[in-house]
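Q: Give me the 3D complex with uridine 5'-triphosphate.
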Amino acid sequence: MTHIRKAVFPVAGMGTRFLPATKSIPKEMLPLVDRPLIQYAVDEARAAGIEEFIFITAAGKGALEDYFDTAAALEQRLAMNGKTDALAALDRTRMSEGSLAFVRQNNPLGLGHAVRLAQRLVGDEPFAVLLPDDVIRSPQGALGQMVDAHAKHRGHMVATMDVPLAATSSYGILDVAQTTGRLSQARGLVEKPGPARAPSTSAVIGRYILEPSIFERLANLGPGAGGELQLTDAINADVETAGVNGYRFDGERFDCGSVQGFVQATVAFALDRPELHGDLSAFLDTCTAPARQVA
Ligand code: UTP
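A: Here is the predicted complex, encoded as structure tokens.
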């Protein structure tokens, strides 16, 4: 039994970096090998002991709800035809009854706004936030590691990874007060600082454990960078009272919100599959030709 029972999955973003693919399907349904992105995030949350799954969705995201529903006709047909492997592949999509909730974000006002919409369902307890764009390859799962750490070190917790100094302007960066092992006590977060302004090279990625006090901060928040309600601003506003720790998880993160990261993740996760590994690595060895212009 974990003290973190609920997880919020903000999936209301427009996914513009994946147009035209995301014109008619949600980004979170793009398949990494043979599972949609959202499945990786849900599996990680389940492994961390999460029991309630709260999706913040938007218009055009209906495929996500259908994905976690039963597909009676398909399942019947597979059973009738003895396709037991195909049926077993659906096991991951089965969620316990009543464990899923969907909240509509009518306006994409930012990640902070999306998280705020989960307030009534989360209530007065610490909870997790997972951004499914960030896919993490790790035996224990990043969220599970954080839940263990959070049991000992309360306050807000953000997942961090070390990045090159030249890359700090692409991330929220932790202003570190003190580091012990994987845990860094922080004075706050700085949004996308250039190398000269970066207080560290600890970058925040899309896994959080938040104390319920975040909701009051979010309620009183004005628009931040890009005119959006920023989760980072709310965490910063709560540092003095709740505290914030960075947790340097053990694992490799892929930014599947970008085409480059998605392609790399596809190769990495396919190489992890014993049935694909041999052929794929032999094929990759042949891919040394210079880039061709493809229309
Ligand atoms: P991104 O900044 O990656 O935006 O959001 P996006 O719309 O998903 O993708 P691009 O940049 O247009 O390609 C980070 C996370 O916050 C969620 C997104 O769904 C994603 O999981 N989000 C963002 C919301 O749920 N609502 C918002 O208003 C904004």
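A quick observation: Residues 259-271 form the longest helix (13 residues).
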